[in-house]
Design goal:
This protein is of the alpha/beta class and about 425 residues long. The chain has 13 helices and 19 strands. It has helices at about 15-25, 75-90, 105-120, 130-140, 155-175, 185-195, 205-215, 245-250, 285-295, 310-320, 360-365, 385-390, 395-410; strands spanning about 5-10, 30, 40-45, 50, 65-70, 75, 95-100, 105, 200, 220, 260-265, 270, 305-310, 325-330, 340-350, 350-355, 370-375, 415, 425. The strands form five sheets. It has a ten-stranded mixed beta sheet, sandwiched between helices. The chain has a three-stranded antiparallel beta sheet with strand order 16-15-17. Strands 3-4 form a two-stranded antiparallel ribbon. Helix 3 packs across helix 4, helix 3 runs parallel beside helix 5 (about 155-175) and helix 5 packs across helix 6. It starts with a strand and ends in a 7-residue tail after the last strand. About 45% of the residues are buried. Bound molecules: inosinic acid (IMP). Inosinic acid binds next to helix 4.
């Protein structure tokens, strides 16, 4: 039962999309298990560019099944637009499967997301305003709509008849823009979605477990990153889903003993979008340079990402929460020609050296990074030459940097990504499916 999961080791945007795409090549099933269309990745297949948010990347790969697991929240209105784009680009959604247990993001969730952020004022989370938080709130509050409800019209009507008036009252109370739809008009709209994807909705846990029994190759594709996990991240500056290892099981309906390998994606420096503590952040010119050189602007929101040095206290926390068995180090080429590379190895909090990422936001705000500084490498701007040279011929300083990460996290760096293209990858493991 070869299965591997890919999870971001920082605050998302680690470059998972490219390495997921690389590992997807030999997968039969590609499963998303959490998050929603707050994520975003660009995939190029046969020269065609697909910008995906809600659709799993596997959907643009012919012959594979792309699964939206039960832990994902789905905005069908926006998914419809993405589906139309995929079809217009010559693709199809024949291989798409949506869990009947996946919760639906509705228009009112987006409006409530905006209203909640407004009420938080200066303490706002900096959400993507995609309605992610309010949808997960409804799931936990047991008043969510699920994809499977589309297939049970009487149940859907009954649910809408009390959920919609309740949401409208809530929006009025929060001074959110009034939701103009009626129960009937919303029901009709949802029946349009049923026509579009009704045949793709099924019990995806059975599908995945059957595939595992048949020895098929499965990739579990994480969205966001470990530090945005609702439990283990920098709460409340997090997303509302379980982005760490446990989320694979709850979000796709597989047991822990069915996951063979977990690849942690570590960007060679650190970024985060939105608010929240970031101990190794560079607020001056160096941060702006990293942002520019690394193209650190969001695919979903276009927002500039905050940038800083690599923080191994963050990555150790992620590795512990996710059980990384391999690391994929990305964007190390962005550090070419940086003379000195500080790596955060501990936090100084009120004079005490702390090695484990604390839960307390106020402690994190007081934390000062303790750096170990590495010598940078020069004259290696030609990444394809770097890839051709192979790992052993990479600049010694770069290998030192990589090997320090491996040693600190006690996990091998099996993938090194040196550029945005799939070919710009050094694979030190190669056989991922045994
Ligand atoms: P939400 O997921 O829209 O509720 O946003 C909560 C926090 O997660 C905000 O700080 C967002 O910027 C961050 N976030 C959500 N999705 C992503 C992502 O795909 N990459 C990076 N940050 C994200």
């Amino acid at each position: 039962m070869p299965s591997l999961a890919i999870i971001g080791a920082q605050w998302g945007d680690e470059g998972k999309g490219k390495l997921t795409d690389y590992l997807d090549e030999n997968a039969d099933l590609i499963v998303r298990f959490q998050g929603g269309n707050n994520a975003g990745h660009t995939i190029i297949v046969d020269g065609k560019v697909f910008k995906l948010h809600g659709l799993p990347s596997g959907v643009v790969r012919p012959g594979k099944l792309a699964v939206i697991g039960n832990g994902v929240v789905v905005n069908l209105e926006e998914l419809e637009t993405e589906i139309n784009e995929v079809i217009a680009n010559g693709g199809s959604i024949d291989g798409l499967r949506i869990s009947d247990r996946a919760h639906l993001i509705m228009g009112y969730h987006k409006k409530l997301d905006g209203a909640e952020e407004k009420y938080r004022g200066k303490n706002n989370v900096g959400t993507t305003k995609k309605g992610i938080g309010p949808t997960y709130q409804d799931k936990i509050a047991r008043i969510g709509l699920r994809a499977g409800d589309l297939l049970e019209e009487d149940l859907l009507k009954e649910k809408l008849s009390f959920i919609l008036p309740y949401k409208k009252d809530l929006m009025a109370m929060m001074e959110a823009e009034e939701c103009s739809c009626t129960t009937e008009s919303l029901f009709d709209k949802m029946m349009g979605w049923k026509d579009l994807i009704g045949k793709n909705i099924c019990d995806t846990s059975v599908l995945i477990n059957d595939a595992l029994d048949q020895g098929k190759n499965i990739v579990f594709e994480g969205a966001q990153g470990a530090m945005l996990d609702i439990d283990h991240g920098t709460y409340p500056y997090v997303t509302s889903s379980a982005t760490c290892g446990g989320g694979i099981c709850t979000g796709s309906g597989v047991a822990p003993n069915r996951i063979d390998k977990v690849v942690g994606i570590v960007k060679a420096y650190t970024t985060r979008v939105g608010e929240g503590p970031f101990v190794s952040e560079l607020t001056g010119e160096q941060g702006a340079e990293l942002q520019k050189k690394g193209g650190e602007f969001g695919v979903t929101t276009g927002r500039g990402r905050r940038c800083g040095w690599l923080d191994l206290v963050v990555c150790e926390h992620a590795s512990r929460m996710c059980g990384f068995t391999s690391l994929g180090i990305t964007k190390i080429d962005i550090l070419n020609d940086v003379p000195e590379l500080p790596v955060c190895v501990a936090y100084d909090i009120d004079g005490e050296e702390v090695k484990h990422f604390p839960a307390s936001i106020s402690k994190l705000q007081r934390a000062r990074p303790v750096y170990q500084t590495f010598k940078g490498w020069k004259g290696w701007d030609d990444t394809s030459a770097m890839v051709k040279a192979g790992y052993d011929n990479l600049p010694g300083e770069m290998r030192e940097y990589i090997e320090f990460i491996e040693k600190y996290l006690k996990v091998p760096a099996d993938l090194i990504s040196l550029g945005p293209d799939r070919d710009e990858t050094i694979d030190r493991k190669k056989d991922w499916w045994n």
